[in-house]
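Q: Protein A?
A:
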Amino acid sequence: MTRILREHEMARRDMTQEDAKLPRLGEIGLQNFAPYLMNRIMGRYNASLRAELARMGLTTPKMRALAVLSVLDGLTVSELAVYSVVEQSTLSRALDALVAEGLVRRADDPADSRVSRIHVTDAGRAAFEALWPTMARSYARMFHGIPEEERRAFVATLQKILRNVRKHDF
């Protein structure tokens, strides 16, 4: 028996009666499974930005860092990783490149010199502002044909879901 089959069998035995009542993915269907839909949407959104990012010499992690810092400047690397939804190791490499390109700068935290805070530079802000129209058009396309009231309700629901799954206090 393969390792995967053994693990599956052990997990099946450990399943509680409540777990056994949960619907299977095939019963829900991919088109009704919110995590799948959210991943597809974000994949398409990121793809719609890729050409402009490449033209500007940016990557998705760099763009996300600049976007977050344009709104919440001076975050720690850990905070920025959470807000930009980028693994910390990937973000660290992106930040090294952004620093080298003069788009962000690192500064010691005044309260704890072991902690760095990341600040967007004027050049970084200008780069983000140049990218923003492309991002805004892609965002508007996502909501094409969806009434404003539905969009607000959808975003409010996403905010509730984020609160349900959030692990951080910021």
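Q: Protein B?
A:
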Amino acid sequence: MITSDDMIKALLAGAVTFVLTLVLGGPIVKYLRAQKAGKHISEHQPASHQKKAGTPTFGGLIIWIPTAIVTAVGVEWWAHRSILLPMAMIGITGAAGFIDDMGTLQGRRQGGLSWRFKVSFLLVLGAFAGIILYKFIEVESVNVPWAGSWALGPAYVLVAIVVVVATTTGVAITDGLDGLAGGTTLIAFVAYGIIAFIQGQEFVATFAFIIAGANLGYLWYNAHPAMVIMGDTGALALGSSLAVIALMTGQWLLLPVIGIVFVLESASNVIQIGYFKWTSGKRFFKRAPLHHHFEESGWAETQVVTRAWILSIAAAFLGVALALAVPE
């Protein structure tokens, strides 16, 4: 059973990570500028975004360096080695995102990793995570509000693949406005940290709050107008680690609720592409993903982001409530 001391330690870990992120963020931004790590802005984005050209990318480093430091020093990971799985996901997807971001820099041949490669990569990574969860961490359940919890057996590996691929791509698609992906994932990690506390999973909760604290510090530098852009270095790692934490709590069924913004953003892309092909060139939205549609409809970037945060907070309330509704 989790005590008040456990909660204090977890919340302090998040607060310490926030402070460390603030301290390290400035030098990291300065270094990225010195390395001319400015991002190229695609012509497919709204014209207003061209002023962001040259803003340093690789901002995910501001999140993951403090996360790694606090986890290594402040969390007894050697006694709770299950935490190594989300850390491994962060390392692997963060490295892939870093390579992808290299292809989006100004003055270089544009391209990065293709979406076909990314999806294939995530399918393999999802299978890896599913096997580790099922075989070694012995997590294989689905929790259903007011109904109970059921073990899924080997089918859990397939569930893990879908959850990892869907969540990671959803966060990556959402990453398109200053503070949008950072704020919405921050809220989701806090929600799952609370859920983990409810379940008595102290170390999962602590790790979720550490990432939330680092994300909060990152938002200091990513607030509009952004000094740094997250890039796939941050987005892919945030998405994959959120997916694994949701799977570890058994509350992955609530991800579409808590991550409602990611669902809407991903769905808008699918609808736009499908409608474009079906109608031979017509568009359902003014521009996809959804945050660009709202921009083209006259919303200011800060309005889109703030309203996405509001929706995410309301969804987090609902998600935690539904988690509490699962019978013990």
